[in-house]
């Protein structure tokens, strides 16, 4: 397991889904509109988590799915097992999984998205930083 500041350990992430749909009709001359990026974090319900074991965390990423005038649409899912240090309360551990674990998973998706979009015939996309602490 990899360790982050000794309070969080995780296995190497696994990409279970990556779907890139290229819009060959998109005209780059019109310019790129703002990206529409949505995420979804999934893990077992709080009452079902065994804090003595690693907890699976899944991050789904959706780019431009609700847009028509875009060069590409992306749907992907990545996951890993995370173990939070036993000295951290369950409430804080849950928050760490929802924020830090999601940020870690996103960092593993970032180069994949960049590489695949660069091969699409359109400019490569670099995923921005996402604040998983926000309520949005």
TrEMBL record:
GO biological process, alphabetically ordered = protein tetramerization; protein transport
Gene Ontology MF term list: unfolded protein binding
Q: Where is the signal peptide?
A: none
Q: Out of the domains of life, which is the source?
A: Bacteria
Recorded family membership: Belongs to the SecB family.
Q: What is this protein called?
A: Preprotein translocase subunit SecB
Q: Which organism is it from?
A: Companilactobacillus paralimentarius DSM 13238 = JCM 10415
């Amino acid at each position: 397991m990899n360790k982050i500041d000794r309070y969080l350990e995780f296995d190497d992430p696994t990409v279970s889904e990556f779907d890139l749909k290229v819009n060959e009709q998109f005209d780059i001359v019109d310019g790129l509109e703002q990206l529409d990026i949505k995420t979804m974090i999934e893990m077992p319900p709080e009452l079902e988590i065994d804090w003595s074991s690693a907890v699976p965390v899944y991050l789904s990423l959706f780019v431009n799915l609700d847009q028509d005038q875009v060069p590409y649409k992306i749907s992907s899912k990545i996951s890993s097992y995370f173990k939070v240090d036993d000295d951290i309360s369950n409430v804080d551990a849950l928050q760490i999984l929802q924020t830090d674990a999601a940020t870690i998973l996103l960092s593993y998706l970032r180069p994949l998205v960049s590489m695949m979009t660069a091969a699409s015939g359109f400019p490569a996309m670099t995923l921005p930083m996402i604040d998983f602490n926000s309520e949005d």
